[in-house]
Amino acid sequence: MLALGKLLELTLAGREPAEKTQLTVEGVRMRWMGEGALEVRPPEVRDNGTDLLLSAGIHGNETAPIELLDELIRSIARGDLKPRARILFLFGNPDAMRRGTRFVEQDVNRLFNGRHEQSGGAEALRACELEHLAASFFSLPDRYRLHYDLHTAIRGSKIEQFALYPWKEGRQHSRLEL
Prior knowledge:
This protein has one domain (3-149): Zn peptidases (Aminopeptidase, 3-Layer(aba) Sandwich). It is α/β, with parallel strands linked by helices and 178 residues long. The chain has helices at 7-13, 63-78, 94-99, 122-137; strands spanning 21-23, 29-34, 37-41, 50-56, 86-91, 144-149. The protein has a 6-stranded mixed beta sheet, with helices on both faces. Helix 2 (63-78) links the parallel strand 4 and strand 5. It holds the Pfam family AstE_AspA_cat. GO terms for molecular function: hydrolase activity, acting on carbon-nitrogen (but not peptide) bonds, in linear amides; hydrolase activity, acting on ester bonds; metal ion binding. It comes from Pseudomonas amygdali pv. eriobotryae. Its cofactor is Zn(2+).
């Protein structure tokens, strides 16, 4: 398997890969973008015009989505999964993931939309970095953009599985996004 297929392993060890860009036998390009960040590009002939950002580990103790992304990345690296979209995989808070805690000093989820500028510390810097990675990834024009931020309920819930969908008055939901 390609070394970049082991992004979770690299992230938890705090290591950089020796090769920052690798190609699968299917022609899928995998590019390390920084700690816990991997861009996957299908061959141009298979690209369906979608940019998909998948993030997990914003809370380091929510391990199920982290494991899910790890398996998706490994499946792509092995050639078992052949993506048709550009994908940016992000492990949000590597320090908290390494410690197995929700966060170290601050909840990264509360530091987005520029709120990191009113704060300090490693998690504020990480929120800024994640915003820049997302903005750069979504900068290509004329592409369909999706971002799924995966979490796990850490307390008991009456609803076993659920998703939160952004709601705006008067806007129809997109079946494609669901």
